[in-house]
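In response to reviewer comment 3 from the previous cycle, which asked for concrete evidence that the modeling workflow produces usable outputs, we include below a single protein chain processed end to end. The sequence was submitted unchanged, and the resulting structure tokens are shown without manual editing.
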Amino acid sequence: MNPADHLHTMAATFQDICQGEQPWIALGNFMNEWFDYAKDRRAELVATPLSLAEVPNQQQLRWAAFCAASVEYLCTRYSVLCPAWVYFPVYTLPEPWFDAPMAHKPEVRTYLIEQTPEPFTRRNIYCGNRMFANKYELAEQYKHFSPPLRSTS
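The workflow returned the following structure tokens.
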């Protein structure tokens, strides 16, 4: 298989997390696909439902909910038809999950509650609003503000 034909889908991202990959590395691989390498194939990146184990553990459930919220958030933001699987009740956590450094502090929790996008809060996930800062779009925006390079010869 040609590596260019292989998509790092959200389903593959979740499988990587379940197999021990650090979540932010697996999600970073997905984000590279979404924002650059396969941005013309975004619907394919999110079409396949996540494969949950018979009895997923708490960490797997948290990351499954995070992945579903991420898909809904990104599809809404980039006008991609959102797949129906993201709305399944299994992707809503029974208890709030605050995934941030120092989330035990009340002021940090308050900030996370106020700043987290709705697809995450509806699933009981509080992580702020910076997890999908897009370096590709940021570079494109700054390119328009940079003066052209001048030749010194």
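Residues 3-91 form one domain. We consider this sufficient to address the reviewer's concern, and the full set will be provided in the supplementary archive.
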